């Protein structure tokens, strides 16, 4: 097989970006050696922001692309890319982080949690956390994984008042794994499944019967296991959703039901049009006007944070086409077990949706190999921040819990246990 120079360079720059993600903590540490407002501090601090890593390397690669192949070729390549997913995640993050949407989510989770507490006499804090970690990710099968990640991460951020290093990494790992597999109840919500569902004729019944119920079991096991092993830390570090609601109501105007309903309608419209960029961006522009009118019931819109996450995903997409030359032959050469295991491992260094998309281009895959590829891709979606597109959104929301920045190695270590549960459920059950 012949590989072009630009394909090899695309792979080299991609892996340099992957390596950079594991070094962001070092860049942040080095930045502190220089005066806060100096240029060196600013540059090193920028290199320590995990959301901009792929954008930086993508910009460097495109500059080299232009130098080697010319401006027109670079423009042609850019226009061939599909940035619908980054735009969608930007819109859904802004929308789901609004006060009315979060209020509706908290009240719904609190209602379910209260029923469980009254029925089984379970502790309030632990029950709230269990319901958040189970229902939040599973809701991703209907409201999409990015929306589920945003809402769930915000609720966890509100309940967690103090944390240890081990606790916060374990919590983030379970959140990432649960969201990655929690969208597998339907064929339209999890990006790795969405990429192949139409081409392989995977309908709702097929996805739920082969992936969905197994994923739901894994979500429950991961959530209850986390709460059991860290039950004392959670009891000392968290407050209940009822307490969160009480504190918020003390300093905010009560959000009218009509405003909440209007925001839920906008959320539904964005989810329904999620595959049509022009449509959901138009709806979002209309929503910005509504947000201005209802500003008495709004917090500051998370535009900057959402743009950073979108930029992170856009950077990954820049490199996607240049990984086909080595990924497609590799995937087609593996038997089912090795394909499943390989997909879990490869997901740690490349977005799982890109992995399944490339797999869908391999015409020789059997039905069992198709299952192995997709199951492995969603099982490994919590190993790193780049493994699953919504992970960047979850980390961005919880980044205040990581004063020294995220350590990818610590996240990888913490994610091994919940990933093993997902692997067992998706391969053995």
Automatic annotation (TrEMBL):
Keyword Transmembrane among UniProt keywords: yes
Entries under InterPro entries matching the protein: Na_H_antiport_3 (IPR009978)
Membrane spanning stretches: 12-31, 43-66, 87-109, 129-156, 168-191, 211-230, 251-272, 278-294, 306-326, 338-359, 371-389, 409-428
Keywords, comma-separated and alphabetical: Membrane, Transmembrane, Transmembrane helix
Superkingdom of origin organism: Bacteria
Pfam families cross-referenced by the UniProt entry: Na_H_antiport_3 (PF07399)
Keyword Cell inner membrane: no
Protein name: Na+/H+ antiporter
Provenance organism: Bdellovibrio reynosensis
Taxonomy of the source species: Bacteria, Pseudomonadati, Bdellovibrionota, Bdellovibrionia, Bdellovibrionales
